[in-house]
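Technical note accompanying the year-one report. For the benefit of new consortium partners, we illustrate the data format agreed upon in the data management plan: each record pairs a sequence with a structure-token string. No post-processing was applied to the example shown here.
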Amino acid sequence: MTLSLQALRSHASRWVLDRPYDPEEELRRCERLGARILCPEDSLYPELLRLIPDPPPVLYALGRLPLQGPAIALVGSRKPTPYGRRTARRLAAECASAGLVVVSGLARGVDTEAHEAAVGAGGRAWAVFGSGLDRVYPEDNAQLAAKIIACGGTLLSEVPLGGAPAARHFPLRNRLIAGLSWGTIVVEGDLRSGSLITARRALEQGRDVFAVPGPIDSPMSAGPNDLIAQGAKPVRTISDVIGGIGPLAVTAGGGGSGAPDEEKILELLGGHTLDLEQLLSETGWEIGRLMRTLAEMETHRQIGLVPGQRYART
């Protein structure tokens, strides 16, 4: 579906732009850039964004479409400690190995580490801008943005082209990071960190929030530790995250994977219990397919979780 010029003009009035806005010129600039403009009625519009309370009426996308695959947001401080950088890289690489897309904001610090590690491990990333897609911010991440696209990822923003990286754009950007993802992991951040805004928006959207515990005397771990105290799930490896995204996988995937897949799971379990990693290994499936099947089978009480995060026939 093509947006009307009036709708584009109305949308542009919400943002800090450094030029007079002309919707016809906007369309021409998008074409030159290779970007698409999507609205919620468009078949390419991300399905998970349709489910949030305030989906963007206009979404700019540059790179691979449609957006496919289960996605996890990885966010944190712009000035992480060595522990935070190391942990962000490890979790992002584990996401890539598990077939999960890494979503973040291309900011310095944890965002950059997460994006670089994901594409470096052969995975995909989605980067959400707080500026127009033609204004990579920070500028020193321009090569990383190009690498994300080259590796099958996508750059996204609701800010019109030429939009400045204004401070008030970033809280709105953070809701999209959470909205595109099945869950959000906060790696590091103090109690005023923007990553906590992303976590709050994830909770408002009904998504899971995870946090990396850290030293109690580190200001950069104050945010994640506080989230854990409030009920966020602590994360050591990506396996701690995968078990929490099944129900939403069914919503995003349009239901279960079908009787043959369910029969395969029942056959593998037999009289045994298996954890998620064992099921991934035994089936050889992608994580999304497995999670959809497990969630559907739990809904129909064919299987259930037992202590140790293991699955068993009921």
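Partners are asked to follow this layout when depositing records. The CA atoms of residues 208 and 244 lie 7 Å apart.
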